[in-house]
Amino acid sequence: MSVTAAKGFTAAGITAGIKQNGNPDLALVVNTGPRRAAAGVFTSNRVKAAPVLWSEQVLKGGEVTAVVLNSGGANACTGPKGFQDTHATAEKVAESLNAAGHGGTGGHAPGQVAVCSTGLIGILLPMDKLLPGVDKAVAGLSEHGGEKAAIAIKTTDTVHKTSVATRDDWTVGGMAKGAGMLAPGLATMLVVLTTDADVDAPTLDRALRDATRVTFDRVDSDGCMSTNDTVLLLASGASGVTPEYAAFAEAVRAVCDDLGQQLIRDAEGASKDIRIEVVNAATEEDAVQVGRTIARNNLLKCAVHGEDPNWGRVLSAIGTTSAAFEPDRLGVAINGVWVCKNGGVGEDRDLVDMRYREVHIVADLAAGDAAATIWTNDLTAEYVHENSAYSS
Amino acid sequence: MSVTAAKGFTAAGITAGIKQNGNPDLALVVNTGPRRAAAGVFTSNRVKAAPVLWSEQVLKGGEVTAVVLNSGGANACTGPKGFQDTHATAEKVAESLNAAGHGGTGGHAPGQVAVCSTGLIGILLPMDKLLPGVDKAVAGLSEHGGEKAAIAIKTTDTVHKTSVATRDDWTVGGMAKGAGMLAPGLATMLVVLTTDADVDAPTLDRALRDATRVTFDRVDSDGCMSTNDTVLLLASGASGVTPEYAAFAEAVRAVCDDLGQQLIRDAEGASKDIRIEVVNAATEEDAVQVGRTIARNNLLKCAVHGEDPNWGRVLSAIGTTSAAFEPDRLGVAINGVWVCKNGGVGEDRDLVDMRYREVHIVADLAAGDAAATIWTNDLTAEYVHENSAYSS
Asked: Which fold, B2-265?
């Protein structure tokens, strides 16, 4: 279903030959209208890939008619040539869509085509393969193309990720790619969300930011922030329905939440999914800071891998933050057992059962009533292998 | 040589039975005077172990007559009982030294005995073994005991670490333990430095802070900061020589630098030692921030393990900092090859030879003339194994 679950969208996923292994590597999502409203959020990394610089400009207009996404190369740190390549890709998409009669209301202009790329940094894209691939993708566009598009954006992902929230008479759907380099200021990933709700660009922007702040922004697989993170939300208006803001925002958040969980579950080499819930913090910012710091502690991530309820590593991590707390009031529960109470030894650690993939850590700061949850995973030899055996 | 290279010190290292594996686990360093000046720096972790809280108080007096160090347990997050145990240990050391006639000028008082502990967090020390061990250590004190003391403070260290700087007629010596949890605000470790120079406590404090700021504070093995970090510098004055400040500070820095390098070379599971040199930064703070951020990037650390000159991961890391730079002016050299120039592809990455243990990364921010160097190591499956296979 993916991005074509909502009415008013077509999509395609094809093999352009960008990836050397012959897997699908080019996806196209087209908004057939009548509305072409869009919003986007991008990596907060100051080293931004060419497609991010391009798409940020496109989104300023509040209209996107098509999104082209390639795997097999990030087009990051590629200088002026990299940016020219992104521009040329957008031009080719508009031209090819118009030539094939997919123009819809008003046709396609390059300045309304968002571009996303993912893969190795510092390599120019093989434009001799990518541009002909655009024609092939346009030829393959379909109202049922969502799955193929989701498959074509995979890199080290073991599965493709899609989600759909269907409400009474409108829908939000989406696809995501991401497996490594998942970190705040957006988990490293590409995400395209679509809806047939009749919603204008400012409302899309608000709903998208409200959703990403508590979903993708709180996924932190390995503390590494990408140069290419992009999340786009496109509205076709094809349902003719304009939902209440709260209902619309909830549906967007539900899809973002589901896709974010799928990202963590597919994190490179992971054997455990860790939910870190920080409670009784003085502020939500404190809770997020503490959650992130715990999520990035390699020693704790190793301990979880070894099914060792090593709460000392949680306290060590909390101690490096600037959050409000008193060391002798801290509490830590692992899988429901309060192994640390009042900053010291609590319930018997042998009571903790860590055999299952899901691990739940609660850090109680005893400093207020704010809370936040961060999702991460364990650190494994397989992660090291995946990220050392070849360039990625 | 170690802490007994300087005149006016005796030391011992014995097996008290704290460690279950029967390895040496208790060290004692005694300043026999005539001076008993001392300075110390401690972890900046807000969750501090009982011995850190105790020793911080001791050092406020500017005099330390003895340091007792145990491995086999960190005595961190152990509540009031843990603090009482530290206090009892200091009392036992003073009592035992006085009883054995090791009092020297003025004898020993508990309030001048520093205590250091290292090992697992959240476990009370076996005082029934530790206290008799103090008597045994006192009985073993010797002017040649430095090596044994250095051996007794090892945890996951594969080698014991000592260093000596001998000047015309005075000496600075030291020992260190540390292998994992090495991070800023002091690398995780215990260090005792001794000198027979006749130097007062304020001068010791200045020299120690000047030295640790550019040595131990810039060692970052795994981004994890300990609850027990302690670096002590004790002066006996036994040489009768008061060196110029610059000469003394240089010798202290030389010993700290050497011990810091030994810590990195023994980092858990590491196969590569990585020197990250940040140049042309706007400020030294910027350079340190960028160096640390690169040092903590798991993806880069994996790439170095795989001998892959993946400069894109260096740029991704730099992009997450608040340092002054323009993305299109950044440069990165790996082992002398400028693989990234002006934020894009530079010299041929195939020219980079990464077969050797030492890896040198230069990040050029092109934003000023400040610089800093951070030392770290790669991320390996062995690190994961060492930190997941058992509690540590």
From this structure: L-amino peptidase D-ALA esterase/amidase (3.60.70)
**CATH class of the domain defined by A273-386:** alpha beta
Q: ipTM, 2 decimals?
A: 0.76
Number of A/B CB contacts below 8 angstroms equals 208
B92 annotated to bind ligand: no
Inter-chain contact B185–A320, Cβ cutoff 8 Å? yes
Whether the CB of B109 is below 8 Å from some CB of chain A: the reply is: no
Q: Do A2-265 and A273-386 have matching folds?
A: no
CATH topology of domain B273-388: Ubiquitin-like (UB roll) (3.10.20)
Chain A hits for B298, CB-CB cut-off 8 Å, are: 222-224, 298, 379, 383, 387
Q: Which residues of A are catalytic?
A: 188
Q: What does the domain layout of chain A look like in residue ranges?
A: 2-265, 273-386
The tens place of each residue's pLDDT in chain B, 392 residues long, gives 799 999 999 999 999 999 999 999 999 999 998 999 999 988 877 888 899 999 999 999 999 999 999 999 989 888 899 999 999 999 999 999 999 988 666 789 999 999 999 888 888 999 999 999 999 999 999 999 999 999 999 887 888 989 999 998 999 999 988 765 444 444 457 889 999 999 999 999 999 999 988 888 877 777 767 777 788 999 999 999 999 999 999 999 999 999 888 888 887 788 999 999 999 999 999 999 999 899 888 889 889 999 999 898 898 889 888 999 998 899 999 999 999 999 888 999 999 999 999 999 999 999 999 999 988 888 888 888 877 776 65
Contact B184, B103 (CB under 8 A): no
* Nearest-by-Cβ selection for B46 from A227, A297, A319: A319
| Contacts for A340-346: CB closer than 8 Å, 24+ residues apart | A340/A311, A340/A314, A340/A315, A340/B77, A340/B122, A342/B79, A343/A315, A343/B47, A343/B77, A343/B79, A344/B77, A344/B78, A344/B79, A344/B82, A344/B122, A345/B77, A345/B78, A345/B79, A345/B122, A345/B123, A345/B124, A346/A311
